[in-house]
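Exam revision sheet. Question 4 asks you to relate a sequence to its structure. Input first:
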Amino acid sequence: MSIIFNEYEYAKEKLETGFKKFICWNDLLILAKYFRYEGYDSSEIRQKLMNLSIAYESNYNDINSGDRLDRAVKKSEKQSLKFPSEVYITENEIEKIRSIKNYKYEKILFVMLVVSRNNKMSYKNNGELYFINENFSYILSLAKVYATKNEGDFIKHYLYSEGMIEAMYPNNKYFFYGRDNFKLLYADANSPVKFIIKDLDNMLFYYKPVCEICGKEMEIRKRRKTCDSCYQEIRKNMKKNWIKNSRNKNVDR
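Answer key, structure tokens:
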């Protein structure tokens, strides 16, 4: 299940484009919250959800499947529709993330922090401790990191060993709905704000790679790990060394 940062626009889009064959539970709940936000009462929401189910599920039977609708309507009384929020990231958090010195792993930590803070997943325990409750494979996809199951497990172990994350429940890691749970040990809400993320769907635009020589942010991720200026300087020095070595070889002859 993916994270929907703007449930209002998501619901509007779904109502316009329709569903393929089946309305999943997450979509059903978002639609219930959307209709309630639009001012409909519980009975009206129930009817609208049933009409949609009949339209998009050929085998829909309200006697057998109506309880899903009832649960969605009831939950919509307690859960509000999610709108995109602004997420702040602090100077110390960026410094700690950058200390990993591996852009792929840094993106993962950045995404985990953004999602945790957007979902307001923190609690007080000698300070504010942030955590996240999402499948690690989904976190990787948000960070645009492509890894096999073994590679994902290695990354998790590495981030554990570096003291960046910790299991919320070491003896029961799949405690909430079959998802992974992690404490984010690098979160530091008390540090000055570095920047504010206003577009959560494009959160990685806010976390650019940096040149490993000068530390300057690079606009576009390239295969090389240096900015254009440092790359040109490296090439210039390589050319000088090549000319110098060629001359020394000619002298030796």
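Marking note for examiners. Residues 171-177 have pLDDT under 50 and may be disordered.
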